[in-house]
Records
---
Amino acid sequence: MKKTSIILLVVIAVCVAGMVMMVGDFSTYETFATARKKEGKEIHVIGALDSTKSVVYDPAKDANYFSFHMKDKSGEITRVVFYGTRPTDFEKSTELVLTGKMVGSEFHCSKILMKCPSKYKDEQTAYSAQKNS
Amino acid sequence: MPCQQTGGIISTYGQPLESIKYNGEHLLPGQMGHLFSILAFVASLVSVVAYFISVRQTDELKKASWAKIGRWAFITQAFSVFAVFATLYFIISNHLFEYKYAWQHSDRDLEVKYLLSCFWEGQEGSFLLWSVWHSVLGLILIRTSKSWEAPVMAVLAFSQICLGSMLVGIYVFDYKVGSNPFLLIRQDDPSLPIFNNPDYMQFKQFMDGNGLNALLKNYWMVIHPPVLFLGFAATIVPFAYAVAALWTRRYTEWVKPALPWALFAGLVLGVGIMMGAAWAYESLTFGGYWAWDPVENASMVPWLTLVAGIHTMLAFRHSGHALKSTFFFTLISFIFILYSTFLTRSGILGQTSVHSFTDLGMSGQLLVFMGIFTIPAFWMLIARGKEIPQMKKEESTYSREFWMFVGALVLLVSALHVTFFTSIPVWNKLLDISGLRKLFGLEEFAPPTDVMLHYNKVQIWLAIIVGLLTAITQFMKYKDTPKGVLVKKLGWPTLISAGIAVLIGWSMRIFYTDYGAGFLLGVYLMLFASVYAVVANITYIITVLKGKTKAAGASVAHIGFGLTLLGILISSSKKEVLSIDSMNVLSGYFSKESGQNSRENLMLPKGLPVQMGPYFVTYRGDSISAVDNDKTLYIVEYERKAGLDAPVTEKFTLYPDAYLNVKGQEGITPNPDSKHYLSRDIFTYITAVPRKDIPADTLPYTPHVIAQGDTVYFSKGFMILKNLNTKPTQKNYHPEPGDIAVGAEIYVHTRDNGDFNINPIYFIRDSSFQANVPDTIAPLSLAVKFSKILPNENKVQIDLKETREPMDYIVLKALEFPFINVLWLGIVVMAVGFGMAIRQRVRAK
């Protein structure tokens, strides 16, 4: 067998092994209900801001505490806490993708990705707020 | 050139508009632009066909005359593309907002230097930019590629058909092909009632444009896209040579002319990507230069395979080995460019990326673009693979080409890993389309929750291998290295590198324990590998090349690469958040959670020094930028001292700025400011500010029932009701006949602001309607209302309201990046090395 072939085989083997190990890194999109079952595990939840409930950010009190309510795809509304500042244009977002985990009855997120409608048409623009990156 | 033209022209989509005569539109530039884009499209078609026939011809005379037709057609398309570019620039710079592109991406306030940024904010403009670079490169290739001209230019012109089709904006059987940048705003949605008005241009919303995204108002954004797209464009040249070689069966000769182009593409693409990183560092608030965002990843992957391809090209040139892999890497690099185009422009990244383009509904077209290059290229490689000459003798384990090949494979693994995880949305889509998701009941995959950790923990090991190979392989000889040479020549550099690595690790206290011991081991190994790459290549230039710079391009590029790795390693493992908010940690949030979500935003009330690491930081106030009215600068003063009263050892002021509530946007778009030292950067940006346009008038009035002579106290002093006046006068009160009015004459005394007299009025109009006119003292933000008369008690009710002093503050994040300059220096050195190598290869002709 040729050396090149052996090396190729080794590389392929390493890749496959790596992929198998990495599959655990895949996250999933959940609803609050399914997230609750996996309490403490970091997941993604897609939903929309519930604008009827209050959005709290008072930097005078705490510059790292932002909370709001989000309605997930199943329609469940849960309070969300983000330890950071309020993202720009937050109220106008049409869709939110949160990364975080359930802690008790609250969802604590470390990353908020939001989609905002453009002013002219329904084109979507993504903005995100993110910390620790 | 203001000109009025009648409406009723045939719209780009082929439907006649109603014959309204619109006023104030400038239709000529758009018509010219669209005409030229169609001409460019048609000319590139002609060019492909002519060059194609030229390749197939066996008769030399016919070959030459067909090539001539192809050449002139390409020149025509090149100048048409330049004309399209110039026209669109004319429209943007003259603020012709009847055009959707100008309206959407620019406005009148824009500084001239950012007019070009508008250009590439939209998909059409960036495609156009790409097309312009292809045209420029094509013109150069026509002059230089000699016997390769016909097949190479056929491939290049073919890509121009694809790019051109993105801009024509015509309907073919109800399918919209491309997006015309010269679309009028009224053609975009003709059903809107506003466009029935011939004077719609006079309406407020069309007097000024939507403006450029504030994030793009940065000088890096003026130069990063042109450089990046030149890199994209340059990648097609080695690809075209490889395809031409397979097509005309000249399997070996192509590497020589393709090599300098591959080096050029590697140089420009690499620099372009890192300019984007510099932009992210300076104007995005990711808190760094690299966030493993899909858009960043997508452009890095082709660079990795391109660099792999450059190395196999060299291996082939010197040893005859690795020709097949050279074909593979050269082809795959351009395919990855197309794939990255698809990822960033089709809207598929939607839920995973921060800054992909908005979807223009061209996903189908982008897929065709990718497929039409991928399938024939790889089909030819497979079908003719057997014909590609191969060395009979195996390469020796002690040969340079062998380890170059191994290095290329490691780069490929790196590229595949990044591609695989960046493509998660694509896998989801494929699972949906193929029905496999239903079949196996799979959930939708999401990207790893900690993206940085995920990529870093894999890529660090690959970086270590590549770093070590970069150090060692140069000292090997092609074909075979005499025994003992390696140990002799590499002994000292190895020891020195180990020493330096230990010194750096110890003196800088690199104990990066965030991700555990395994990762820390990786950090130490990478530290050694990157230092090793630098030291070994310097040694190589001195001892082997004897300081001759002519052939030193590769070594210089490797030194730059080692420095880049070192800069990345140190700046990210020693990145420190200065603005940790420790105040609130104790008050209720001190839990496991707070350790993970460190509180990185700090509130600075105006004028009050707050400690941040070794600094005391004071927010001094804000001011409006002199050049850009939308921009607010915040004056943040840093003082380095041991304690609040200790002597100041260092003092500087940073001016982070932000666009506040631009164009109806609620919130801020901040731009960081940094204090640059040679060894570190203090990086500061605003994350929140109080809203000044909404008065903080939330306190209710407090009622006081008093008689004449009584005193009422308030926070800044007191007031006495002196008298009630039945003929009151006040600037806000306009008496009418029949009014019954009473004014309260109140004397106000304050501790700090002096004395005032105010006169709130209570009145009854038309015998029944009770009303009052309050009086205010603006400097005290005090409002006084005379709201009731209580005749039985001989008293009156006075209501007081003090607006809470609007607190001025900023919330900021401050980070310290140590040795970020090592990274930038590395990039510059690497670019110089690439440049030297190109020079060497071009001279070698």
---
Amino acid sequence: MGCCVASGEAVADEMPDSVALPEVQVTAKRRFDEVIPAQRLDGEALQRLNSNSVADALRYFSGVQVKDYGGVGGIKTVNVRSMGTNHTGVVYDGIALGNAQNGQIDLGQFSLDNVEEISLYNGQKSDILQPARDFGNAGAVYMRTRTPKFSVGKSYNARALLRSGSFDLLNPAALVELKLSESVNASLSAEWVSSSGKYRFRYRRVTPTGDVAYDTTAVRQNGDIEAMRAELNLNGTFSNGEWHLKGYHYNSERGIPGAIVNNVWRRGERQWDNNSFIQGSFSRDFDRFSTLWNAKYAFYRTHYVNNDDRQMAVDNLYRQREFYISTANRFRIMRFWHVSLSYDFQWNTLSSDMRDFARPDRYTHLLSVATALNLPQVKLQGSVLGTFIRDYAEGKRMPYRNALTPALYASVVPVRGFRPLELRAFFKQSFRMPTFNDLYYADMGNSRLDPERVTQYNVGAVVQANSSKGFWRGWRGSVDAYINNVRNKIVAYPKGQQFRWTMLNLGKVRIKGVDVAASVTVNPVSTLELTLRGQYTFQEAIDITDPLDSYYRDQIPYIPRHSGSVVANASWRGWGLNYSFIYVGERYNQQENIIYNYTEPWYTSDVSVSKDLRINGIGIRVLVEVNNLLSQDYDVIANYPMPKRNFRATLTVDI
Amino acid sequence: MVAASFLLLGCRGDSLVIPAEQNRVGDVDPDSPVAGFYLLNEGNMGSNKCTLDFYDYSTGVYWRNIYAEMNPGVVKELGDVGNDIKVYGSKVYAVINCSHKVEVLDALTGIRIGQIDIPNCRYIQFHNGKAYVSSYVGPVQINPKAPKGMVYEIDTESLAVTRTVTVGYQPEEMAIIDGYLYVANSGGYREPDYDNTVSVVDLESFRQVRLIPVAINLHRLRADGKGRLWVNSRGNHADIPSRLLMLERGGGEFRLSETFPFPCSNFTIHGNRLYFFSAEWNEDTQNNSVGYGVIDLDTLELLTDNFITDGTERKIAVPYGLAVNPANGDIFLTDARNYVSSGTLYCFSPEGKCKWSVRTGDIPSSIAFMEKGN
């Protein structure tokens, strides 16, 4: 289902400018109309990476920082090119996931089991037949779940999976796919995860003379999780069109392990999440005209409790609802020239049992116009998105917040007849609305906030070649340089005394970055295939709010100047070996780049071995993973220790 | 292979003990009866960045973040959110709120003597060889959602808790007069039903003998040299404003005698002067409005509404800590800036001119002067 956006045409027009290599599929495939292809992980490559969740897999993309509070249940959010988590859209099977309360999507909640492909777009997905909302992100992660495929004469597929390992992890999952008719199929996938979240971590310091000052190992507490996910998909096709319907339910209970500080090794915060949505899409091509309709209704319930009897007792319930409908329409003027018009309407509301809660409602209208030119050597796309937002809070009508944000994408094949080399560039403006928390949270929210704005400039080049035989099966290299300006950044500002805060449009951040990625696949003997992939990101992301600030021109918190990863993969007669290395350079955990805010670099090595068997038509896969092989002690977020070496084994049976 | 060379990088260099830094300030006064002062930086909650600074009048050097170097063996250093610091006898006591402990150091060397575990501890006061520590968390009894607070009594020799007494809701500062302990109760966890009382605890029986109704959300509580108690109310940040209040004996017992018509965030008493400041958020200007005042304790008149006379107040974002050097009357004021970056300590002459300023840790809050001969 998933790629509803590219819909009908995607299947037919997927440009085979690269032969999809079964093992290397990062950015190998290109969808129709995509001016700048996404970074993409799919298929085997995705399955073999040692990843717990979608968030873990995103660490292999360039330009991305993943915030990870540690463990199976710890919150994991993604920040693309240092613009902030709230600027990153997350799209699940064609429709954006929302969180109007705080704008953060916890990608730790999405397991990789039924995700077939993850794509990361800088700026927007450069496809013009898409919902207006998709034109609005500064960066976007698209997750696509498995599409049922039936071999000849087969009317069902079934898969059962059992995963177990460190942290008392137990994770059974099942998937059933049914071919209901030639044009309709269904899939049901369900998963249950349970983990104590207990892992050993270590803090150690030495004196300048080399003596151990302290060296302590403890067990992470209150990081337990129990979660279940169930998902039902119905997919159908008809002449020149298709439709999809999805029901999704996730519920979890987890402990929030909290910061490890002196004399505190356990906390008492717990959270229950109950997230459900139904979404559907319909697309159809007429002669020159294509249309795509999407709709969604979501209900999120979060229950937060602080049981720590040494602290203030808190017990709050939040309920969020979202209704969304979108129509996207594309018209072909000439064979190489398309225009599109999309309109989305979205309604969000948040209620809570907190005292004096503002109960905000938000009505969002989005209108986009876009055009695409596909010439032999040049591809161009331009779009303008108008966003019109009105909130109602405490029964009062708030003023409209409007924004007009343009984007321009171009790619050029500079040497005629030499398609492997391509140059590309984009310019994009985008903004993020203040969240309900920013605007209305108890004493802290500030209803006068303006949207936070980002302008991005990017230039880059990609060179690639693939072949279906010979030693060199494929190689690819790309480099992009960019400048992003964030203004009106929403920051917490102290209000009077005693840690009361308010939110203000105070910050200015300038980001200069370079993303480099390369991959190569070789086939030394017919049964052996080796793949090596690497990516490196340089980012200077500095605070330029006010020359009088002590952190003026300092690197913003938690953005490393240098980061990267290397993945090596070998497959031979059903065996698979994967080694991955991730490096995140030194960072500062607060605004000032001083020694007291210094956070050390971390780098981990993960290894996995898999074996595929086929017995009497039943496919069996065994996967064993070792993560943090060298048992490095590190924090991604200061005072949130990450696990030492840990293990996982997965058994998958396909019939 | 590239991957193999990365493997070799697997062992990372050691993390060193957090080093102290020094700034030569130059305000040398070797003859002063005050040897120096400790300044406790709170550090934002969850950051574990409560740090301890020391100013040495014999050398004029400001030492920043000395705790880890003096006590390298303490796991995760001084802790999370330091709330109060005082010197008593030869020891210095730092109340570390979110690390749920009182840290006891040797005042001369800064070397740790021990710690006393007290949950959600707030402030400390001393009397006759005993320390009294207020704590937000009392016994979980009738209503576990809103437990009353407690005061712990600690023997300063053995560092053992000797007695406890239940007081009002979320108690803050304390003062001791004539064998009675007075405790400002805030009720901050019960918003909007704040507490509005001062608890009176008989130190002999260690029982709460009375509750004096004063004003909501009390915080600072100090005795002046004239047998009176001064307390500030933080108001409710909405329709009830912050106020400075005075309690006097009437018929043998303390009662509210004066409510001053201006807000007060923090104050300190030196001789017959009460220095205070207020910082209140102004919704219209989207700014903090700040005032710095002095009250004459003989006449109860407001001597000035700005004790800073050289314009330095324009540099101060969020005034936070306030103290006066008992020997020379220099006024110390800290700026917590945005709470998540280094603060600044300003030293003003008694005339209100800035003598020097220095960078501190995050959220510089309380100052404890160390007199010589301790």
